[in-house]
Design brief:
The structure holds two protein chains of two kinds. Chain A contains nine helices and twelve strands. In chain A, helix 3 packs antiparallel against helix 5, helix 6 packs across helix 7 and helix 8 packs antiparallel against helix 9. Chain A has a twelve-stranded antiparallel beta barrel. In chain A, a hairpin with a 6-residue loop joins strand 4 and strand 5. Chain A is α+β, with helices and mostly antiparallel strands. Helices cover about 30% and strands about 35% of the residues of chain A. By secondary structure, chain B is mainly beta. The chains are: A alpha+beta, B mainly beta. Chains A and B meet through helix 1, helix 3, helix 6 and helix 7 of A and helix 1, strand 5, strand 6, strand 7 and strand 8 of B.
């Protein structure tokens, strides 16, 4: 049987390689819809080179994107090996053992699973983007990189939660970072200015950046791809202190400093669109309970006005991560939303979006019944994590809303609410109901400066599937005061 | 035990797949947005639990696969995937159905190579007979990913050979000896299907 296994593997690999080398250059007319759109509106299109969808777009190299995803796996593996990780000591035997076992749940740390793997996935995804593949094609590269890492990159068994988090999180973070890289990149500049803009973009999207340096695109003057020029762009940076209450007492703990950034790329409430992530919202927070405590991305996959009502229907992909000293939660979801922008006065607008959808996989910190405090976890050094793991995994559903009141394009008030149900499939068996609400009030001071305050509330109600149907609730109020710096 | 000649034929067939597909020069037909796949597979199942320490055996059985959906572009199809499999153990017959939302991607338009992936739900009937006498149903989070080769990828009707892995995460499994926590089942399939576009 070994003969046939090896032969089959060789046949598949050679078949793929031959297909890659024999790959015909797709004429522009065959380029997918997204790229075709950008070709139609892109000024300065280089129609003599049909391997590029536009003048500044990368060469389309499908085989190279998969090869680079494999190379990324090798680099991560070598990194783990250099750090002395036992799980990096892979051999064909461990590959075969992993393939025979199939996928299981893993016991890794929350941050590793919920932010580490999505970041790794973003590298795979951007290997597709950097080689001229469109969004959905790059999603396949993310899944390929994720699956091959799980089976062949480590000695421990392939992990189901890692595969989902790496693929879906990688798509979300990858496209967001790819677009952020194109915002930073100044393709009209030359000399040092150009070099630093390319280096800055490479820091955000390393795979695209390195490909551009390698191909010479990093110094070629061209127009930016129209696809990566947002219809609008605004951001708010906030610096201040955060006070979080606990189960027993409110706000007794000392405040934590934080830096938070909200970025609004495009407008999810306007326009007909089938270009994924032409509009997205990003929030990241450093400090406020942990070094990196929050990341949210809500990217539009599809947008369609509803008649002449002014309402807009959207399909949105979301990535959520919250990890602080009080609670931890993360999720990957697909939502359908309806929103509208109302003109209150000539200078004041009210923007709102409501949504509901499916959570493909969510995680929430959870202790077994009878345990009131998380025990110190055993340090396994460079060995594989052996558990126990104090958070649960499961699919579920979610709903929520986001509203902003703005004057002259600057936020005066903001409301955010999300409710989520998770049915735990791994960990303590329970139904978790999570609610998170936040209200921000901001007073513009001078120029881009402002001062703000916010009230936030996180609530978890867990219904355990024990004989008694035990219920536990947890709530964490938060207040914060901060200065803001707005750009638009 | 597979006969050596049959083994050789399988290997030769797999070797010829890329060449025969590359040799195809079918003119592109009017594009239909429909994507339908129907076929059969041979499946192998293996269970796993996080803490129970049991060594689950491999089980084998026949399966049926169906895809239906929409062709977004010449390279990308999206839709639903239904996989049904039945297998037998000492206690009786067990059936599983996985219903997933899937996307199938062909990196090269004129070549038959494709990868696919998706997620959804799985339903397992009489799973518990592996452990005890009480039949039970169980729902699971399902994930699917796989690869394969499609013959005549530009035509309206084609044939595909595929290798797919379905993963079902069941959570708790109730048995006569008590619940087993954090159970997953992995289903590997090899099969062939008719493709209609």
């Amino acid at each position: 049987m070994w003969f046939c296994r090896v032969f089959v593997l060789l046949a598949v690999l050679l078949g793929s390689a031959r297909a890659a080398t024999a790959q015909e250059t797709p004429p522009v007319a065959q380029v997918d819809q997204n790229q075709t759109q950008s070709v139609q509106v892109q000024p300065g299109v280089n129609t003599t080179n049909s391997q590029r969808a536009c003048d500044a777009c990368p060469l389309r190299r499908v085989g190279m994107s998969f090869l680079q995803a494999t190379g990324i796996n090798v680099l991560y593996g070598l990194g783990n090996l250099a750090r002395g990780e036992v799980t990096a000591r892979i051999t064909p035997k461990t590959w075969w053992a992993n393939m025979q076992q199939g996928m299981v749940w893993d016991l890794n740390d929350f941050a590793v699973n919920q932010i580490g793997h999505p970041y790794q996935g973003s590298n795979y995804f951007d290997a597709g983007r950097a080689n001229g593949l469109n969004f959905y094609e790059s999603a396949a590269v993310a899944a390929f990189g994720s699956a091959t890492w799980e089976f062949f990159g480590e000695t421990n068994h392939a992990s189901l939660n890692d595969f989902i988090n790496t693929t879906l999180g990688g798509i979300t973070l990858g496209e967001m970072m790819h677009r952020a890289g194109w915002l930073i990149r100044n393709t009209h500049a030359t000399g040092k200015r150009r070099l630093w803009s390319e280096i800055g973009a490479t820091a955000v999207d390393p795979i695209t950046g390195m490909n551009r340096f390698a191909s010479g695109d990093a110094s070629r003057v061209s127009d930016k791809p129209q696809e990566f020029v947002p219809a609008s762009l605004a951001s708010v940076a906030s610096v201040g202190g955060l006070w979080r209450g606990s189960q027993s007492s409110a706000f007794s703990a000392p405040g934590d400093p934080f830096l938070e950034v909200d970025a609004y790329y495009g407008d999810t409430n306007s326009g007909r669109s089938n270009i994924p992530y032409d509009a997205f919202w990003l929030r990241v927070r450093f400090g406020g309970g942990s070094a990196f405590s929050e990341a949210r991305v809500r990217g539009r996959l599809f947008g369609q006005p509803i008649g002449n009502s002014g309402f807009q229907f959207s399909v949105i992909q979301t990535y959520n991560y919250q990890h602080n000293d009080a609670y931890s939660t993360g999720s990957q979801a697909i939502d359908a939303g309806i929103g509208k922008t109302c003109q209150v006065t000539d200078r004041t607008t009210f923007w709102f979006l409501g949504w509901a959808g499916l959570t493909v996989l969510g995680a929430v910190d959870s202790l077994p019944l009878g345990v009131t405090e998380k025990p110190d976890e055993e340090d396994t050094g460079h060995g594989p994590d052996t558990g126990p793991r104090f958070y649960d995994y499961g699919p579920g559903s979610d709903f929520g809303g986001l509203a902003r009141l703005a004057h002259d394009g600057r936020d005066l008030a903001m409301f955010f609410y999300v409710g989520r149900h998770l049915y735990s499939l791994d960990g303590v068996r329970a139904n978790h109901f999570l609610q998170h609400a936040r209200v921000d009030l901001i007073l513009p001071l001078r120029g881009p400066l402002g001062i703000g305050t916010s009230v936030e509330y996180f609530h978890r109600r867990s219904v355990y599937q024990d004989a008694a149907g035990s219920i536990r609730t947890y709530h964490y109020p938060q207040v914060r005061g901060y200065f803001t710096w707005s750009t638009r | 035990m597979v006969h050596p000649m049959r083994r050789l034929w399988i290997c030769v067939l797999l070797w010829l797949i890329p060449a025969s597909a590359a040799a195809q020069n079918a003119p592109p037909e009017d594009a239909s947005k429909l994507w339908v796949v129907a076929g059969a597979a041979s499946g192998t199942l293996r269970g796993h639990c996080q803490d129970c320490g049991a060594d689950f055996p491999f089980r084998h059985g026949p399966g049926v696969v169906g895809n239906g959906g929409y062709r977004i572009s010449p390279r990308l199809d999206v839709g639903g995937d239904v996989f049904w499999m039945q297998w037998r153990n000492d206690s009786g017959v067990i059936q599983a159905v996985a219903i997933d939302a899937v996307a199938q991607f062909r990196p090269w338009v004129s070549k038959g190579f494709f990868v696919k992936g998706g997620a959804g739900m799985a339903f397992v009937r009489n799973w518990v007979q592996t452990m005890g006498p009480n039949p039970d149903d169980s729902k699971a989070l399902a994930v699917v990913f796989g690869t394969g080769w499609e013959f005549n990828p530009k035509g309206r009707v084609g044939l595909q050979l595929f290798a797919t892995q379905y993963v079902g995460a069941l959570g708790d499994l109730q048995t006569v000896n008590g619940p087993i926590s954090d159970v997953t089942g992995n289903f590997w399939t090899l099969g062939a299907a008719i493709v209609i576009r």
